[in-house]
Amino acid sequence: MAEVRNAINAGEMAQRFMELVMMQAQQAAMFLGRIPNPQTNEPETNLPYARMFIDMLEMLQDKTRGNLSNEESQMLTGVLSDLRLAFVQASAGAPTERPSQPTPEPTTPAASAPATPNVEPEPESRKRFTKSYGA
């Protein structure tokens, strides 16, 4: 009987964890202008608040590392990836919708790059990306 109770509690705890992550993600999305503010029904952008909610989710990810199921871990990682992208777009003044095609890396001006004729750009899989999401 105790095993059944523990299984029910584990299921409830998993559901509550996912609800917590989604509530934090919704707050971040609201402050990134992706969800209208329920009081004004208008989108608003407040990057410091959005960053605070993203940072809280990152802290939650760090503190729960090794204690989450694969489903919980994948959900949290996916939510954080989406919010980081939205934060970069909002801080750069880019549209808040996700682009349908990957955005190419900015190119360096021709004056600062050495002239190399007939050089093809690196394939997408070899490009390097960093974790930075704004100033």
Features:
mainly alpha; 135 residues; 0% strand; single chain; 53% helix; globular
Structural class, judged by helices and strands?
mainly alpha
Question: How far do the termini sit from each other?
Answer: 53 Å
Oligomer: single chain
Helical stretch count?
3
Helicity range of the residues? 40-55%
Number of strands: 0
Uncertain segments: 98-104, 106-117
Mean of residue pLDDT? 78
- In this structure, how is the largest beta sheet organized? none
Total domain units: 1
Tell me the Rg in angstroms: 20 Å
Q: Tell me, briefly, the overall form.
A: globular
Please provide the ordered H/E string of secondary-structure elements.
Answer: HHH
Portion of residues in beta strands equals under 5%
Please, could you describe this protein's structure?
This protein is mainly alpha-helical. It has one domain. It contains 3 helices and no strands. α1 (2-31) packs antiparallel against α2 (47-64) and α2 runs antiparallel to α3. The longest helix has 30 residues, at 2-31. The protein is globular, with a radius of gyration of 20 Å. The relative contact order is 0.12.
Write a brief caption for the model.
With about 140 residues, this protein is mostly helical. About 55% of the residues lie in helices and about 0% in strands. Helix 1 (about 1-30) runs parallel beside helix 3.
SSE order and pairing:
Blueprint: H1 2-31, H2 47-64, H3 70-92
Helix pairs in contact: 1-2, 1-3, 2-3
